[in-house]
Each structure stands twice: as structure tokens, then as C-alpha cells.
Amino acid sequence: MGETPSGKAILKDFYGPTKAEVTAKADAYRAAHPEGPPSVDATQLLLEFLAIWLNLVVKKHNAESTYESYLATIDLYIVDSIGQRPLCDLTPLIIQSWVNAIAATGKGRTAELALAILHTALNDAVAWEILKRNPAAHVSAPTFERKKAQAMTLAQAQAFMAAAGGRQDLRKPIMRKNGKKMTPIAINPRLEPLYLLYAIIGFRRGELLALRWSDINLETGEITITKSLDKHRREKGPKTESSIRTVYADETAREALKAHRERMQAEHHQEGWKHDGLVFCTEEGTSISPRNLLRHFKTVLAAAGLPSTFTLHGLRHSAGSLMLAEGAKLTDVSKTLGHSSVAITGKVYAHGYEEGKRAAVAGVGRKFRRTTDSGEGDAPRKGGDGV
């Protein structure tokens, strides 16, 4: 009688004293509803409503990755719990208990996300006049310790790049189990330019993996970002409208890209090479699996002697932090990173931004202190207000 958000059949119960009567009731229901479940009303199960909402709203107006994320969250945390309740039976207490139960398993962020999805869906139920009010409106999101992406210091980023390029002498080579033997791992330096763009410009992973040579002007340094690659290696649109942007590679990045292109041109003549124009690809010319990139990143971390807690996304944060430390304006950093607003940039890099503001004031203060110490400052005139 319909499907759940993930496509599982929704069963409807019919009762009667005989099998023939139950069959007749089921046939009558199907005849009355030839196109599936009836139009949505407040007596419909939450999971049925969410299936309709996902297709009408989320799938039509969001990136595919957003739809898949919502679908997975609904299937895992809503369908088999409050999803079995009619819309009209939902109360703030029921929803709060559901949120608390998810958070109690140590999944505070998941509980927050699930509540946000439900709140948005039920807002639409109110807008569509299915419900008079949103029962999730006054439900409290769980409190939990948020994990902040760890940015590398300049020295750490330099050590990482040296390891990525195979320029670091390793006292203890990184070993990997190969059958019964442990063999040393040789780091392939072909991905060093990718990490360099991560750390200098602050790309997102998907943006780098979808980057093509046609997007880059190596003379001016202009790099146009219009697409991304998802975890399944499918090309998609940008995360937000502000993600479509032009960024600028400095001389260091341009020289690295030129050398990288020369190496790739030599590989083009190999048998089986796939000509896709990708800047960063496998040795066969195909797109890089995000999972393989992560594995390579972890190997480089170990080779550089850096904590395993660093993440690929942390390199992007390193770029933002280093830009601010060099005195870049918050608005320019925000545009380079492709944030949807300057407010987001300020929130993410609040610590570094505050340090920059302190340094700016301290710099002006030092100038006045030198003037005062040398006796060159103008003292307030007697009788004046001194202001």
C-alpha cells in the first residue's frame, strides 16, 4: 500500500472472519486507491508522510547527497520508531523522548540531525495544512561535545608536505603487513600537488577530485570551481551557490601544477590511459576513490610523524587559519573557501580571527608605546579636554 522512504513495502492490515472477506476488503481498498496511498492527512503514518515529503521537496530542491543523507537518517532512526505513529498522534513529549533515546547511545550529532530533518518535514506538514502546529517546534536538541576539525600549524603542514613529496628521511619506515611479512611503504609523490592546493587554497575534497585542466589557467593562476565528486565518484553540482567560485593559485601552487602536468603528459602515452582531463587521477587516468585518498593521507601522516587525529578536511581548516594568520580579510577568506556566508567563516575560525584582532590592536599599541617612550607624542594642552 505504498513504500517507506527507502522503498520498502508499507503493509496495511485488513480484518474479517474469513480469508475471503479480508481479500475482498483489500481488493476494494486497491480499487479505491489505484495510484497508491491516499492523499496525505493527519491520520497517515509519519513514515508514509516522510516518503512523500522526500520525493516532493528534498529530492527536487537539494543536492543528491543531501537527499541520500536524509533518506539514510530517516530509515535508520525514524521509520522503526516514531515513524509507525500517525501524524496526529505526535506530541512534543513523544518527539523529545525519541531524541533523548538516540542521544543516550552516544550519537548526539545524529540526534540533532534527525530532529532537524523531522522539524523541517513537519513545518511543511503545517504549511500544507495537514497539521495545525509543528509538534517538534519546542523540542530541545541534545547537548554534546562537538568535535572540531584540527588545523595543522605551519610547521606541521610543512612536515606533511615533505612526507607527501617523499623528501623526508624516515628514521622508522612505515610498514604494512603483506601476507606474513611486514614490508615498508613507499609513498607515491604524485598526490603532493593535491595536498598543496588543500593547504594553500582550502579546497573541499570533492572539488579537487573533480578538477580538470580546463578549469585552470596556469599563467594567471585562476582556478574555476563549478563541480564536485561524491563518495561514489559521481560528478555533481557544488555544495552551495557560493561554492561556484574562482580562486587564485599563487606561484608555489602554479609551479607545482606545471610540474604535475608534465609528469601526467608522460603517462598519457601509456597503454590503457583514460583521457578525462582530470588534474588528479589514478595512474590509469581514472578518478580517485575518496577512500583510497584517505588511506594515502593517513600513510603520509604516519610518515611525517603527525597525529592520526588529523583529517583531510583539517587541511582545509589549516588553509583558512594560515590565511587569517597572514592578515587576510575575513571576507576574502570566506569567498576563497566558498562558504555561504562570512558568518560561517567567522564561526569556524573564531579562535584564529580573535588572535588576529588581538595582534592588530597590539601592533597599533606598540607604535604608540614607541612614540610615548621617545617623548614625541603630543601631550594634552593645559586647560583642554585632553580628548
Please provide a brief summary of the model.
This protein has 387 residues and is mainly alpha-helical.
Number of E strands: 6
Helical proportion, percent range: 40-55%
- Gross morphology is globular
- Describe the largest sheet: 2 strands, antiparallel
Q: Compute the CA-based radius of gyration.
A: 29 Å
CATH top level label of one domain = Mainly Alpha
- Ranges where pLDDT stays below 50 over 5 or more residues in a row are 377-387
CATH architecture designation of one domain: Orthogonal Bundle
Mean pLDDT, to the nearest integer, reads 81
What do these coordinates show?
The chain has 387 residues and is mainly alpha-helical. Among the domains are: 109 residues, Orthogonal Bundle (DNA polymerase, domain 1), CATH 1.10.150; 157 residues, hpI Integrase, Chain A. 49% of the residues lie in helices and 5% in strands. It contains 14 helices and six strands. A two-stranded antiparallel sheet has the order 1-2. β4 and β5 form a beta hairpin. α6 packs across α10 and α7 packs across α11. The radius of gyration is 29 Å and the shape is globular. The chain starts with 18 loop residues before the first helix and ends in a 13-residue tail after the last helix. The C terminus is likely disordered.
